[in-house]
């Protein structure tokens, strides 16, 4: 059964490298994520660390770095998701010239839509699977069966069982569909993208125009708010000045 929200906290660490955090506009530092996980664990809250991988600058070394950080931070669960360049988002606008695949049926966070400059999509998938294997094998052997309360232990072993079941059924990460059976097949995987699908330039231009209009409207609303605050501040200052000069705060009646 799923845990109530107060017992489980997915933590969008997003990336191990600070450079990637900055790309995702995350207002956090790598050290902040580690401290957040520590505090949540001390409060007996289940923690799932989520990493996004697969940008253009991904390498075997950066994938290894996410694994080392996941193991150092010790969340209860870890998840590696493929970066998915959703159209009409600010980050998509920045990297649109690198996006080759517009088969939106594959935009599912487990299919490597982006191809890193230094590795193939198959090598990227293999690196992610390597991280999963090492993280959960060590958790299964040294952590889940031995740590925490009875409920914590049962829940985490249940998660491990679900991972194993999906892995044997080849449904985890769509491994069966991609033809991935381990490191020996990393250069043979196939994702069957429909490469005839494209995104019309006119759609992007319409979105950009709408985004510009929304931004200008937001700026106008903010300006009006600031004007209102300034008028209120001036009224308060004028009232305070009258009071300081002996005018008081009460209106003078006709019979006064």
Model description:
The protein has helices spanning 18-23, 30-42, 60-73, 90-95, 121-142, 150-168, 175-178, 201-244, and strands at 8-14, 46-53, 77-82. The protein has 256 residues and is mainly alpha-helical. The chain has a 3-stranded parallel sheet. α3 (60-73) links the parallel β2 (46-53) and β3 (77-82). The radius of gyration is 27 Å and the shape is flat.
Structural features:
256 residues; mainly alpha; Transcription Regulator spoIIAA; 3-stranded parallel β-sheet; 8 helices; 3 strands; 8% strand
Low-confidence stretches: none
Strand content: 5-15%
* Secondary-structure element pattern, one letter each: EHHEHEHHHHH
CATH topology of the largest domain: Transcription Regulator spoIIAA
Main sheet record: 3 strands, parallel
* Assembly state (oligomeric): single chain
Count of DSSP E strands? 3
CATH-level-2 architecture of the largest domain: 2-Layer Sandwich
How far apart, in Å, are the first and last alpha carbons? 75 Å
Give the helix/strand class: mainly alpha
Q: How many discrete domains?
A: 2
Briefly say what this structure is.
By secondary structure, the protein is mainly alpha-helical. The protein has helices at 18-23, 30-42, 60-73, 90-95, 121-142, 150-168, 175-178, 201-244; strands at residues 8-14, 46-53, 77-82.
